[in-house]
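[audit] Reproducing an earlier prediction to check determinism. Same input, same settings, fresh worker. If the tokens differ from the archived copy the diff job will pick it up downstream; this log only records the rerun itself.
[audit] input (165 residues):
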Amino acid sequence: MAMVTWIYMLTDAEVAALKKAPDTITSLDKPAGEQLATQLYTSINYFLTGAAYPAKKHPLSAVLGGEKHVKAKSVESGGFALTTAATVARLSAALTKVELAKIKSAIKKADFDELRDTEEVDEECVLEGSDNNEAAAEIIAEIKALQKFFAAAAKKERSLVTYTD
């Protein structure tokens, strides 16, 4: 089964509460418009940043990787990442400039077997059976969802918490 990356919008009070009790991360319950899930973490990262696990210095590295790591035993990956409302606003602006047609073209040309072996793009179980056109449609749809989600979070001046489990 593929890992799922969860992103939630949080108020300042919710961020403070989560910092005090980090293991409550897995019990967050937010309305549909304030949460987003993806099983395409490394694919999205790779086609947005050029790396499945981008370096912190990349301007879009915090989209799925977050800004500041917080340890939490309740999360299989060992913790979660917080992203401040100011950074969310910056990321939202950067995401609007992403050239989706260029990314779609790169996905259509990609050799996913090679990417799995050399770049750690490892969602073959999610994309299994898809040709590159179908993979492109799925990844582009998720990037569009991220653009919309970040725009909504920026408009509400919300911080984000991200974890993969």
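[audit] rerun output stored. Observation attached for the diff report: The radius of gyration is 16 Å.
[audit] end
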